[in-house]
Write a structure and sequence with these properties.
It comes from Pycnonotus jocosus. Residues 1-101, 110-233 form the C2 domain. Belongs to the copine family. One of its GO terms (molecular function) is metal ion binding. The protein has 532 residues and is α+β, with helices and mostly antiparallel strands. The protein folds into three domains: 14-117, Sandwich (Immunoglobulin-like); 126-262, C2 domain (Immunoglobulin-like), CATH 2.60.40; 275-510, von Willebrand factor, type A domain (Rossmann fold, 3-Layer(aba) Sandwich). 21% of the residues lie in helices and 29% in strands. The protein has helices spanning 88-93, 185-189, 220-223, 238-243, 266-271, 307-319, 360-374, 384-396, 417-427, 445-451, 484-496, 499-510, and strands at residues 14-21, 28-33, 60-67, 79-87, 98-102, 113-117, 126-135, 148-155, 161-166, 181-184, 196-203, 211-219, 232-234, 252-262, 275-283, 327-333, 335-337, 342-344, 347-348, 357-359, 376-377, 402-410, 432-438, 458-459, 462-463, 469-473. α6 packs across α11. It is flat.
Length: 532
């Protein structure tokens, strides 16, 4: 909207060029270009860019605008109209996944605005619930009837087949009814409705040498007609067909039911307005070492971030795109506070217990450094108070409009293991996830136990309703070459990768559906002005 006018006799002829940035060397690479739209300062570009989206990665984008003056593909031959920088997460996390931002880059001039909308491609999200039965299958076993099962294959681009589903075995019958099964459309036919699906029928044998009864082919489109005369298939054994003149078939297989279920995705909730609230809790216990010493994990090095700062920035910069007000509560635990030296296990880093919110990740970093100067590192290391602090908020919004993520950064020597387990088991009922980053050289066995990936966490005989804790040791990500950018991107990827699934597991258990997205943006109709 309102692009600069660079042409003397007519309006600009704009094009938009999208660049993405490599994580390691920060080099911008051209991703694609829109079409050129002639003679307008308010273009609505049609060509779309299709990109991969990962919640746990930060994808930097740059949109450059040019006024095209000739047929040359070389951009330096055209007039630059300005640019806009954002992240893919920022677009997706905006209200209705629609971001409007100013175009910048030409000093002293207003360059207009750009509106970017993102939409998740829907074709791959459906799954299907199907049930089959068979009649009069060939008898393969010497003593009894056959023990039939079905094997489904999808066809690949090169004509080969890949197995995508096996039914259970139904014992001793030539007229089996198999249980209904659910499979994603992607697995069944790669989202291509007309691609061949091959189904083989076998007679199960204990020794693994299952006997081939016969096969038939179909497609998603055929199956989607549901139970009908079209979905009764003759099972053919090509060998028998070749040998026997009178061979008709080896039985029939019938589709009994076909139900399409659209899986809702993490982005459906984000688009519907669900906010992710991010809270940080930092370990201020004495085991971290004196902050004025270079050996301390809290050492305030003027030239580079310490481990706490690096972990906080890596995770926070990605999550902040999904939080519209960018205000984050930042807490500390295990320190003695001024003026009276009382020990606290949940204090506000900005010194304001009534309002512990900091603006953006930069605000959190600033409050962290301020606290280091004013509090005294002490102990013990108690996690339960900060977990309960966030759980209190999470317990009050159960309608799916908000989800809470607590990042605990710690040197890992935990004092209140029993209480922490109890807190986590209670918190697993609420819309929240906990990320623990362990810094320093300690043994993190206790943290691994809290993670609950191997054994689901329990307290006093009660198990956590779902897995909500993700732990990583910071030392696994320190790059020997000193390139922290790549290593921090890997850290963020590993701690955040489980969040969308944890988020969905809460919504599913509670039966919460995404809110409808706000209506899509429709550009105003330009009224043609006529002279009277």
């Amino acid at each position: 909207r309102n692009l600069l006018d660079r042409d003397t006799f007519s309006k600009s002829d704009p094009i938009c060029v999208l660049y993405t940035q490599a994580i390691g060397n920060k080099e911008w690479r051209e991703f694609g270009r829109t079409e050129v739209i002639d003679n307008t300062l308010n273009p609505d570009f049609v060509r779309k860019f299709i990109m991969d989206y990962f919640f746990e990665e930060r994808e930097n984008l740059r949109f450059d605008f040019y006024d095209v003056d000739s047929k040359s593909p070389n951009l330096s031959k055209h007039d630059f109209l300005g640019q806009m920088f954002c992240t893919l997460g920022e677009i997706v996390g905006s209200q209705g996944s629609r971001l409007e931002k100013s175009i910048v880059g030409i000093p002293g001039k207003k360059c207009g605005t750009v509106i970017v909308t993102a939409e998740e491609l829907g074709c791959c999200r459906d799954s299907v619930l199907m049930q089959f039965c068979a009649n009069k299958l060939d008898k393969k076993d010497f003593f009894g009837k056959s023990d039939p099962f079905l094997v489904f294959h999808r066809s690949n681009e090169d004509g080969s087949f890949t197995i995508c589903h096996k039914t259970e075995v139904v014992k001793n019958t030539l007229n089996p009814v198999w249980q209904a099964f659910k499979i994603s459309v992607r697995a069944l036919c790669n989202g291509d409705y007309d691609r061949t699906i091959k189904v083989e029928v076998y007679d199960w044998d204990r020794d693994g040498s299952h006997d081939f009864i016969g096969e038939f082919t179909t497609s998603y489109r055929e199956l989607s007609r549901g139970q009908s005369q079209f979905n009764v298939y003759e099972v053919i054994n090509p060998k028998k067909k070749g040998k026997k003149k009178k061979y008709v078939n080896s039985g029939t297989v019938t589709l009994l039911s076909f139900l399409i279920e659209t899986e809702v995705s993490f982005l459906d909730y984000i688009k519907g307005g669900t906010q992710i609230n991010f809270t940080v809790a930092i370990d201020f216990t004495a085991s971290n070492g004196n902050p004025s010493q270079p050996t301390s994990l809290h050492y305030m090095n003027p030239y580079q971030l310490n481990a706490y700062g690096m972990a906080l920035r890596a995770v926070g910069e990605i999550i902040q795109d999904y939080d519209s007000d960018k205000m984050f509560p930042a807490l500390g635990f295990g320190a003695r506070l001024p003026p009276d030296g009382r020990v606290s296990h949940e204090f506000a880093l900005n010194g304001n217990p009534q309002n512990p919110y900091c603006h953006g990740i930069d605000g959190v970093m600033e409050a962290y450094y301020r606290s280091l100067k004013s509090v005294q590192l002490y102990g013990p290391t108690n996690f339960a108070p900060v977990i309960n602090h966030v759980a209190r908020y999470a317990a009050s919004v159960k309608d799916g409009s908000q989800y809470f993520v607590l990042l605990i950064i710690t040197d890992g020597v935990i004092s209140d293991m029993a209480q922490t387990k109890e807190s986590i088991v209670n918190a697993s009922k609420f819309p929240m996830s906990i990320i623990i980053v362990g810094v320093g050289p300690a043994e993190f066995d206790a943290m691994e136990e809290l993670d609950g990936d191997v054994v689901r966490i329990s307290s006093r005989g009660r198990f956590a309703e779902r897995d909500i804790v993700q732990f990583v040791p910071f030392r696994d990500y320190i790059d020997r070459s000193g390139n922290h950018v790549l290593s921090m991107a890997r850290l963020a990827k590993d701690v955040l990768a489980e969040i969308p699934e944890q988020f969905l597991s809460y919504m599913r258990v509670r039966g919460i559906k995404p809110s409808p997205a706000p209506p899509p943006y429709t550009p105003p109709i330009h009224v043609l002005q006529t002279q009277i």
